[in-house]
Amino acid sequence: MIPTKSIEPKILNVLFLCTGNSARSILAEALTNDLSVSRGKLKGFSAGSHPKGAVNPFTLDVLERSGISTAGLRSKSWNEFANPGAPQLDFILTVCDQAAGEACPFWPGHPVTAHWGMPDPAAVRGSDDAVRKSFLDTLVALRRRIELFAGLPFQELDQLAMKQRISEIGGK
To answer: What is the pLDDT of residues 14-51, one digit of tens each?
Structure first.
């Protein structure tokens, strides 16, 4: 019997975009990478059209309380991912309405794009507990979407079907 060589599935790169890259997109990046430790399908990145330059402290707090690594998380411009030498992107998902309406840079490789609009937890005003709850609610909603996304049969779907399925997940 000839041993068969196991073919490792390609890790797919997904960029989550938001305007400030301090809350929703950072949460999505961290969640994707945390879930991918066990599933090994996706690598998450995040960026903003007008990055704030720092990750919102509540973002870091909620991730740490949830046992999700915050190592390496930083607020960065989407231009980093349009430059030569940047990771080749397979998917670009906007998580805020403002970023979805902006003119994006040219993304090499024609990644699949979709919009997963969500309320901004950083816009919530009130006690620390109320703000923290809004961040936790966002984390839970993103976890559900990312789990559904990671469960898609990537090898079986063409680009149009993939876009439709990912857009449907964003509506949940």
So the answer is: 999 999 999 999 999 999 999 876 567 899 999 999 99
The number of distinct structural domains making up the chain is: 1
Range of the domain at 122: 13-170
- CATH number of the domain where residue 109 is located: 3.40.50.2300
- pLDDT confidence of 111, banded at 50, 70, 90? very high
Cβ(33)–Cβ(69) under 8 Å?
yes
Quick check: 56 and 134 in contact, CB under 8 A?
no
Q: DSSP for 7-47, please give it.
A: PPPPPEEEEEEESS-SSHHHHHHHHHHHHHHHH-SEEEEEE
> Cα(152)–Cα(83) distance, rounded to whole angstroms?
29
